[in-house]
Predict the 3D structure of the following.
Amino acid sequence: MARVFADSGHEVDVFEKRSHIAGNCYDEYDQHGVLIHKYGPHYFRTDSEILLEYLSRFARWRSASYHVQAMIDGELVPLPISLSTLTTLTGRVFNEQELALYLQNARVGIGTSVEGQFEPKNAEEQCLVRFGTEIYQKFFLHYTAKQWGILPKDLSPSVTARIPLRYNFDQRYPEEKYQVLPSDGLTAMFKRMLFHPKIQVKINTIVGSEEIAALKLKYSLIFYTGPIDQYFNCVYGQLSYRSLYFEWKNFSFPYLWPCVQINYPNEHPYTRCVEIKHATGQLISSTTVCYEHPVRYCQDSTTEPYYPMLTQDNLQLLERYNVMVDEESVGSTPVHFVGRLAEYRYYNMDQILLKAYNLANMLV
Amino acid sequence: MARVFADSGHEVDVFEKRSHIAGNCYDEYDQHGVLIHKYGPHYFRTDSEILLEYLSRFARWRSASYHVQAMIDGELVPLPISLSTLTTLTGRVFNEQELALYLQNARVGIGTSVEGQFEPKNAEEQCLVRFGTEIYQKFFLHYTAKQWGILPKDLSPSVTARIPLRYNFDQRYPEEKYQVLPSDGLTAMFKRMLFHPKIQVKINTIVGSEEIAALKLKYSLIFYTGPIDQYFNCVYGQLSYRSLYFEWKNFSFPYLWPCVQINYPNEHPYTRCVEIKHATGQLISSTTVCYEHPVRYCQDSTTEPYYPMLTQDNLQLLERYNVMVDEESVGSTPVHFVGRLAEYRYYNMDQILLKAYNLANMLV
């Protein structure tokens, strides 16, 4: 957004709470020289050629291969659930018809053999009617419980509704056509994007509700990307988020794993181990992996808010804040709330980039 | 073939020159406990459900991912040539139209912009008209020269005619739908196949032309799978083959490479480095890789005949031997010539397995 406005001749100030740009997309070289994704892996992928064309002003690209496997009963099994998964899991080569039949049988205990004929009330029922008991228990039950800190039966069906199911052998994790990363990393791309005579970036700058009042006097338009509840001093109470504790480990050999991400649904306190070198394509003799331990987000601790917790309570709270958001969007200095935290909504990288790009172009 | 005949009630004797079964598909655990493919990687894949169904009597399977990258200018670039390759090679994200345009321009120097409008006289022209100069020089020129010991311009266009070119981002190396390996290895599958009361396997048994004469008195049908010229005592001269010297190296860490095969078109005497753990899926703390050095096959040395050299001279020689092969297929004990060596023809695993299966069923 800053770049779109700057390119149109506007002066733009960017206030950044952290000591660096690029938000959670930030990547950096660690002390061992390995390029890491500091706030968790950002597997950039998109179907939007418009977005790619715009970003290509600031990046050269490399094709990335995002492959994920789950450790199940001591064996690595490809994800997402596909013919590959069932083949390795059962030892029988599955084709489309056999998967359909398998799922039809697996659903029988749920009281239906057809996914659409059953209205799941929670994430557990949602998984069960989609995948049946065996896959649910091996892949999703414990993983979801670790990730969210509550059981799937207490989560909205929407949380697991978009888990892919593939009637083919495609082992690429995302569905999107273009799966690429900037050749020299994400931070470098954002740095070039912000490198413009009309853009000033002020890092280490916290903007709370008091500062906003002052900024409104100076600026004609404001985009807020922090947590929506904190903007309003949490007057109605705090929205809850899941956070992650990242446990980094460097090894002095090339690769620990055969692919970028290993999920541990059933063992260990961490949900997954990410070896980002597989995505960045960096050729270096050592490797750094990251074990992700899900934790509760606490506003006054060092935890970061990563995942909005879409429970009934939070969604009701969000509605109340959204009324105030609407009021902020009018007036002499409109404030727009953009992004995962400001909208309390999960976005992939390309989704929020495209949204920001379109919004900026609409308002510029 | 042995199993099909045995299952139909015939007594079968298998004479095996080597000290083990399974031919070049033989895999074994090396001294470090790593399951290796001793005679080069055998990436089993097939489109034939008939073949898979038959083999499934003798194997449980796991989904294998066969990914190949080439080391080009110090960077790993995905193969086969696809939108992924061009994206990483150029730093620009390619789509279908851009690849078509790129190839159209790249072909201009060859005197055409359309592949089909040009009749290549040799492998060099074949690659040039398919891929253009840049890709030919970076990926194929030196690799082919190393592999065959002669320049592409001295090779038949058929040698490079089937190199794939993909207008998508699919990074799986083979095209076939089913890409799987037996969970406990290829040798184990063949062992179960041969485990039958009516099959006798005699290892360390060389069958030359003299022995054949004796065998004809004992058996009603013979399948010969050795080199076609050696069956006839090389009366017209020797057919030539390319061979490989395998340089094995074990490392006491999990993985050396991010995928099963790294091609070195331009550096080193070896053509590729194979890290078979990526295909077998074995989870073990050390890894064994194999550097493949192409060498000339010499009948009386320890080299093995791997690749028929399809030159004009050899093909003419083959025709003369084939006349004699035809004569062997009749008489009271017909001899059938089956396989890469006996037919002097390149087969993938699934192709020769299916051919053998069909032939056996026809003759049984």
Summary: Chain A touches chain B at residues 49, 52, 56, 60-63, 65, 67, 74-76, 78, 83-85, 87-88, 91-93, 95, 169, 171-172, 177-180, 183, 251, 253-259, 277-278, 281, 283 (CB under 8 Å). The radius of gyration of chain A is 22 Å.
